[in-house]
Write a structure and sequence with these properties.
- The chain is built from five helices and four strands; from the N terminus they run E-H-H-H-E-E-H-E-H.
- The protein has helices at about 30-35, 55-60, 75-90, 115-135, 165-175; strands spanning about 5-10, 95-100, 105-110, 155-160.
- It is of the alpha+beta class.
């Protein structure tokens, strides 16, 4: 029985469609990026490939083909993203069980919602973007048509036995990058008994 989801998505420039570790992309939409890094590296892996050995220099060189620099949220921007998430969670009654807003990507563990998880991600991105623009700290504040989020998301479906593992993974994600543990007021533990 699916009780929730582990949602992961990147900021602009986080994960390339031709990342040497693999990607979930079928094509590279930017000619410049294609020239710099080659074809899409489609993988069917259902697990994270983030720690797979790869040519880091090739990945970083490909990122030089971007039209804009990759987004790296500051702590102040991450706090605004969190406020956007909090507003959305409160207004939509979305249960959020864990959250890590990293400089270049986001992890959330949520309970089931009344809409598909893909739509939840779209709305969370929109809420965060609205908050960044309202506070006038959007990474592309002067370029109103530019998005700070990458397209797409990864969704891991969670049964009751998966929730605690996902929560711990998300809570420890900042620590792996040498950042402090994050505490968000909109995060609450699941209210059902885990089996």
């Amino acid at each position: 029985m699916i009780v929730g989801y582990h949602l992961i998505w990147g900021a602009y420039g986080f994960w390339l469609p031709n990342d040497p570790r693999g990607s979930w992309s079928s094509y590279v939409g930017s000619l410049d990026l294609y020239r710099a890094g080659g074809e899409a590296t489609k993988t069917d892996a259902r697990h994270s490939v983030a720690s797979a050995p790869h040519d880091r220099a090739a990945r970083l060189a490909a990122k030089q083909a971007f039209q804009r620099p990759p987004v790296r949220f500051t702590g102040i921007q991450a706090r605004a993203v969190g406020r956007g998430f909090a507003d959305y969670a409160r207004e939509s009654y979305l249960p959020v069980w864990a959250c890590a807003i990293m400089p270049d990507h986001v992890h959330l563990v949520i309970g089931r919602a009344h809409i598909p998880a893909e739509r939840v991600v779209q709305q969370l991105k929109a809420a965060a973007t609205y908050q960044l623009r309202t506070e006038r700290i959007h990474p592309f504040q002067d370029e109103t048509s530019q998005k700070c989020w990458a397209q797409g998301e990864w969704i891991v479906y969670l049964d009751p036995n998966d929730v605690e593992r996902a929560n711990v993974y998300v809570e420890q994600n900042p620590l792996k990058d040498g950042l402090p543990r994050q505490h968000w007021p909109f995060v609450a533990k699941p209210e059902y008994a885990l089996t």
